[in-house]
Protein: Curli production assembly/transport component CsgG
Amino acid sequence: MKTKTVFLFLMLSSLYTLGQSKISVAFIPITYDSNTISGSDAVIIQESILNSFVETKKFTVVDREKLSEIEKEKKLQRSEAFMDSNDVITDGISKGASYLISPSILGLRHTNTKKEWESMLQVQIKVLSVSTGEILATASVNSDFIKPEKIALDARSKYASKKEISEMTNRQNRLQKEQKHKEDAFILALERLSDNVKVFTSKHFPLTIDIANWDAKNKNILTIAAGSNIGIIPGQLLDIMNITEVTIGDKTVQRRQKVATACITKVDDAYFADAVILNSEKSFKKLRETNASFKVITR
Structure:
C-alpha cells in the first residue's frame, strides 16, 4: 500500500512542470442512500465537492454533458464492484479527463440542541484512473472543523498582516458556531466540508514547483514560480525537497528528500510568490551552499 501511495504522489506531482498545466477530472454522479438523504441535498453536496476542486485552481472539470454518459455506464454495470475492479473504463465516459472523481455520501446529520442547530456531513471520495479504472486514492472526508497546524499558525502570526489575522480568526470562529436555523447549519457544514475536500486535493494532487530565486541577503527567503493562477495563498505550507538522481541497476531514478519546511508570505501575482523557511534539516545549509537542486512541494 505504501508503494502505491508513493507512486501516486510521484505520478500526480509530475504533472506540474513549468507552465503548471491543470489536471483534467470528471465527476461521477454522487451516490447516496435515498431512504435517509433527499435528492436535493445530494445535489447540493455534489456541487459543493465539485466547486471545492474548482476553487483550488488546480483542476479543469470536464463539462456536464459527460456526466450523463457516466451515469448510463454505471446503470449498465449495476455493480459497485465495477468501480473496484481493474476493468478499463469506456473511453467515451470521460473523454478529455485524466481522472474520475467518485463521491459518495456516507452520512448527513442535523442536531438540535438548546434551540440551535448543528449539521455534520461525511463523504467518501475516490480518485480513479480513466485509462485503467484502478482506484488511485480513496478517503473519508467529513465536515468537522480542522484547526490549522501549529506551524502554520505560528507563521501566520509572524508574517500575516493584522487585517489578515483578524479575518482568518473571525472565519474560524464562525465555522464553529451553532446556528438558529437548520438550513444555516447545513450551509456551514458544507463550507467546512469544502475546506476539508481541499485538504484532500492537496494531499493527493500535490503541486511540484520550481524555485525562481533565493534572496541574496537572507538565505531563508525564496521566490517560487507559482502564484494565484494555481491557488497559491498566504500562509500555505511548502516542503522543500532536495532532488538527486540515483542509479538502481540499469535505471536512473529521481530521489526526493525533504530538507526544509517553508511558508508562503506573499503572493506577488499570478505566477510568483514569496516564501520563508520555517525550519530545516541539518543538511539544508550545506546543500544551499553547494547550489543543490531543490523543488517545492505544496501541502
Remarks:
- The longest helix spans residues 182-204.
- The domain at 23-69+94-146+180-204 is CATH 3.40.50.10610 (Rossmann fold).
